[in-house]
Write a structure and sequence with these properties.
8 strands, alpha/beta, 10 helices, single chain, FAD-linked_oxidoreductase-like, FAD, 8-stranded parallel beta barrel
């Protein structure tokens, strides 16, 4: 089996305890030799400053290539571009450009009167700068805001046409979900790389809630397995087995890169990587 490229998503810490947890995760997964790591925003752009600080620290102290998340929700164009300039000064060369989730209770996304209209306009602006590799989000299953079944494919096509270099999908549980989406994208004329997003399930209740929010379907066999797990140890074994099997099928089907949503908990992701034959390349020497 060909060794796939890997990448990992982290979220910024909100307190000292969270900072230690993030660095423990970075230290555990950096030896896997990720092509890049990404750092998220909170809903409504609520963690912009924290995201910038985490991006700067991971890039400088851990020596990893960081793809910094950037959203345009609840922000003017000037505010968003100020973040971009901060990333550039920090040496960041990759951005994950997203519309962003609206704040809870806001009733849905509404562009800021002085902001970007959405992700496509944001991508166009970043592409015109010609200084970043631009990654974008993709939905292999129908997004709750999508008007029809092919709307997500059509929107992704607009993102690539605007200047995106690659896309990272939302998580899913069946390889065929990704393959159908990939085929639909190829039929629509999308030629850029589409990287499957993998969520090793650390917390079944949380994963089920998140899946409902973003339109991810859960196979009955997966739900039954976690519902009947006797304890966390059994649930972890199941999660590792399911994620490894999914990755095996994706690799066999031609996927050359896997992106893991770590939730700042490295153990399951590391176990899956090991099961796939992805072993440490080096030791992270400076984490503080």
């Amino acid at each position: 089996m060909t060794r796939p490229a890997v990448s990992f998503e982290f979220f910024p810490p909100k307190n000292i305890e969270g900072s230690f947890r993030l660095w423990d995760t970075v230290q555990a997964l950096a030896p896997m030799g990720p092509e890049f790591v990404s750092v998220t925003y909170g809903a409504g752009g609520t963690t912009r400053k924290l995201t910038h600080e985490a991006v700067d620290a991971i890039h400088k102290k851990a020596g990893l290539r960081v793809a910094a998340h950037l959203t345009c929700v609840e922000a003017t164009k000037a505010e968003t571009l100020d973040i971009v300039q901060g990333y550039a000064k920090a040496g960041v060369e990759e951005i994950v450009a997203l519309r962003g989730d609206p704040p809870k209770g806001s009733g849905g996304f509404r562009p800021h009167p002085e902001g970007f209209s959405g992700s496509v306009e944001l991508i166009e602006t970043l592409a015109a700068m010609d200084r970043f590799r631009i990654r974008v989000g993709a939905y292999p299953e129908r997004h709750p805001d999508a008007a029809h079944e092919l709307a997500d494919v059509e929107h992704l096509k607009r993102k690539f046409d605007a200047g995106a270099h690659s896309a990272i999908t939302q998580f899913f549980f069946e390889a065929d979900t990704f393959f159908r989406f990939r085929d639909a994208c190829e039929k629509a004329g999308i030629t850029g790389p589409i990287i499957p997003g993998i969520l090793p399930i650390e917390n079944w209740k949380g994963a089920r809630k998140f899946a409902a929010m973003c339109g991810t379907s859960i196979p009955q066999v997966v739900a039954d397995g976690f519902d009947h797990a006797k304890d966390q140890a059994e649930a972890d074994l199941l999660a590792t087995a399911l994620a490894t099997e999914l990755c095996d099928k994706l690799i066999a089907g031609g996927a050359e890169h896997l992106h893991f949503y770590t939730l700042n908990k490295p153990d399951l992701t590391r176990d899956v990587c090991h099961a796939l034959g992805i072993t440490p390349k080096a030791t992270l020497s400076e984490v503080a």
